[in-house]
Design a protein that fits this description.
InterPro entries: ArsR-like_HTH, GAF-like_dom_sf, HTH_MetabolicPath_Reg, Tscrpt_reg_IclR_C, Tscrpt_reg_IclR_N, WH-like_DNA-bd_sf, WH_DNA-bd_sf
Order of helices and strands: HHHEEHHEEEHEEEH
Mean pLDDT: 91
Keywords: DNA-binding, Transcription, Transcription regulation
Number of strands: 8
Largest sheet: 6 strands, antiparallel
Helix content: 40-55%
Structural class: alpha+beta
Radius of gyration: 21 Å
Strand order of the largest sheet: 5-4-3-8-7-6
Protein name: Helix-turn-helix domain-containing protein
Pfam families: HTH_IclR (PF09339), IclR_C (PF01614)
């Protein structure tokens, strides 16, 4: 800590980070041990965070992240979208296919930014706000691949999983704290051209760098 920072705010943010890293919540005692402060301090932190709906406590007294965090999280999408647009435009124009940035939203993949190519006669209509299960489509499967093989997830290709006759290619965003997603393209084709996979990986790296 330095003279310019707030110890109380720092502790409150650490509480949120600790709770975000667990599925079953933490008790006051557990938080006290992990923060290295007494239980009274933890009670005050939790009471303040609870007033803002940033945490909630169940009947057993375990604290979990609250729904207020979701409201804050919604404001992240426009910032992420803005940072990703240059790479997506370049990808769409280069490949001649609809490019998209997809983020995890619960058990679903949510398209938060979409760019269509300007020079093609036809392309797949793919809109921001489109949702689909993570287990279907290249965008979601790429995210799952990054969870399973974080060091070398590569890229993912699919055919006809979300729309008949449409192929998809996607690569996950890597090394971006707090953001889990992928960059990809969708096109009307029987087979994804060989150069598309590596080009999608390049675009995913560009977006990741813009978000760091």
């Amino acid at each position: 800590m330095t003279a310019e920072t707030s110890q109380t705010l720092d502790r409150g943010l650490r509480v949120l980070k600790l709770l975000a890293d667990t599925d079953h919540g933490l008790t006051v005692t557990e938080l006290s041990h992990r923060l290295g402060v007494n239980r009274t301090v933890v009670y005050r932190l939790l009471a303040t965070l609870e007033q803002h709906a940033l945490i909630r406590r169940d009947l057993g007294g375990r604290a979990r992240v609250g729904l207020g965090v979701l409201r804050l999280g919604r404001q992240v999408h426009p910032l992420v979208r803005e940072a990703a647009m240059p790479a997506l435009r370049s990808l769409a124009e280069d490949i001649g296919a609809t490019a998209h940035l997809t983020l995890v939203d619960g058990a679903e993949a949510l398209a938060v930014a979409v760019v269509e190519p300007s020079w093609t006669d036809y392309h797949v209509a793919y809109r921001a706000g489109f949702r689909h299960p993570l287990e279907r489509g290249a965008a979601g499967r790429a995210i799952i691949a990054a969870r399973q093989r974080p060091r070398d997830p590569g890229y993912t290709l699919t055919h006809g999983e979300l729309e008949a006759g449409a192929c998809g290619a996607a690569a996950p965003l890597l090394g971006v704290t707090g953001v889990e997603g992928s960059v990809g393209v969708v096109m009307l084709a029987d087979v994804v051209p060989e150069r598309v996979g590596p080009r999608v990986m390049d675009a995913a790296r560009e977006v990741a760098e813009a978000l760091r």
